[in-house]
Amino acid sequence: MEPRLEVGGLTRRFGGREVVRDVSFAIAAGQVSCLLGPSGCGKSTTLRLIAGVDLPDGGTIRVDGRPMVEGAVRVPPEKRGIGLMFQDFALFPHLTVAQNVGFGLPKGTPGRAERVADLLERVGMTRHAGKHPHELSGGEQQRVALARALAPRPRIMLMDEPFSGLDDRLRDDIRDETLAVLKAEGTAVLLVTHEPTEAMRMADEILLMRDGRIVQAGAPYTIYNNPVDLRAAAFFSDLNVIRGRVEGALTETAFGPFLVPGVPDGGEVDIAIRPQHLKIDFDRAGKGPLPTPSHGDAARGVVERARFMGSESLVEFRMDFDGSVLRAKVPWVFLPKPGTPLWLMFRRDRCFVFPREGQPRVA
């Protein structure tokens, strides 16, 4: 099936600096893709290039196979069939809710009133049709902005941090409602955000962006569990990082030796473990040291601090092996006193091994 949106080799320069570098991806009808990355990585610029409010220095943009940007072709924004939603909603203050939703439909459009009424019902705003934006809450304004953007039936919806201005208590509900409406319309969606949890919750595919480039693309489960490098892993969660030097394809750690094929002797590696995967070995609590701790699968640490975080506890340990600090997340309440020695362990398939940045990737 032909992609609804297809972007190839998109590049944009400002003052000689490439802020978007050879970006390529495709989105199908009804698919939600998310451009995820830190501020300044090129996400919003990519969105503006696709919308047509900025022009690329290179690359192609196609909608349903039709070129929007290709060679000498430059289709203006209003003829691309693309809807836009931004974090400030941009509702017209002098128009009612119904008038705002109908703004994108020229007067005389067949079924205009019915389309407005249908969208207001879908977003739960029918009883507010006669109100003005200043009479609405932030969540209600978000619903109106969504209905207005959908009114002309865009084939593609571009969304730039659309939920960042909402109260945390409303955000999840509004996101889910928005996603349901967009899916029902069969709209291809490109969402820009810097929040990994938002991307994981909404996206069918995540496009992880850094320094103007897409460094990894995949389903949320895949990109979370198979990050391309240490920075990609750290973007999705806190990490414990154990640093080691390779000798004979092995690196020694407090948790025993790790096999690291493909890294030459003397090379350095980072072993990353998420705090929730670092477990406390309660069966060994209070017992003496292992006979050969460097060759076991458990390591001793001394509690430095423990804090209750609501649904879990965060415990920090100073490790006997090298004096490094590791953090473990423990379900519910676990607050051992500082100075308490405990044994830690983790499953090898729950960690990531990366060569230190600038060195070849571990096979």
TrEMBL record:
SMART domains: AAA
Tree of life domain: Bacteria
Presence of the UniProt keyword Transmembrane in the record: no
Pfam families: ABC_tran, TOBE_2
Classification via CDD domains: ABC_Carb_Solutes_like
Residue intervals of the ABC transporter domain: 5-236
GO molecular function, one term: ATP binding
Keywords from the UniProt entry: ATP-binding, Cell inner membrane, Cell membrane, Ion transport, Iron, Iron transport, Membrane, Nucleotide-binding, Translocase, Transport
Signal peptide region: none
Official protein name in the record: ABC transporter ATP-binding protein
Native species: Rubellimicrobium aerolatum
